[in-house]
Design goal:
about 325 residues
Amino acid sequence: MNTLKYLGSTLIRMLLLLFGVSIVCFFLIISSPIDPVDAYVGSESNISQEQKDVIAEHWGLNDPPVQRYITWMKNLLHGDMGDSIAFKKPVVQVLKERFVTSLVLMITAWVISGILGFILGILSGVFSGSVMDRIIKTFCFILSSTPAFWIGLLLLIVFSVNLGWFPVGFAVPVGKAAEDVTLLDRIYHLILPAFTLSITGVSNIALHTRQKIIDVMKSEYVLFAKARGETTWQVIKRHGLRNIAIPAITLQFASFSELFGGSVLAEQVFSYPGLGNAATTAGLKSDVPLLLGVALFSVLFVFAGNFIANLLYGILNPEIREGSEK
């Protein structure tokens, strides 16, 4: 019963969040100084003002903002998210085409950041005060204070332009037929963008895991375990992993929002054809339907991450499971 109540309240919170985000994003987008008609036809277009007025009327741009939002919401409830002005396709189709590409990039970066941050945090905490600890902390502080897009540009210049080890951009080789693109081709083009995006989450996981493992190593039950003859790594394996895994998972799933935001910059730097790149294009074109579609998708993505984290909390530690009876 408590589980059903929790799921019901979660669903209501998600719907309210989607509704609120849609309102805020809609009125922010239509307040943009970019004229969607001018962005659509181009600054050097020779079409007359009458033709521009026809385009604006066709898109409903002359309607009052509230009426435009109500019309969009009614269409959304019927499964129609509108047509993208920038891509000249239904928004649903654009999201489907770009979703898989972005998902592969984000999941790869998410796994790399989680594993690398967790390992670095354990090493730093176990050898607290050592040279290794100072090196790892310095590395994490540099990462946390450096913009991801700057690191992406640096990696692009060094490994793509100067050394030529990796492609300059895109998700597949340019000029190669889709049926001829292999898995190795996709992985080859994925390495630099994924590594750039993974950097955003490494430092937080590593520093929090470091502090947690230090607290664990100073606890009484660990001192007792060492007195019984257990080695440091046995103590970590038997007594520490569960305690340090919970905050690590919390941060890792909470980083979904940063991951999605970072993907916009990473995809733009590497010309990676995902949702982030589509959002940038839509913003420059004042493409209201597509921007709203990407915004709602990002909300669902982040909300799903937090929801999964809550479920995993209960698995790792039933005492903090939401909805459990006192």
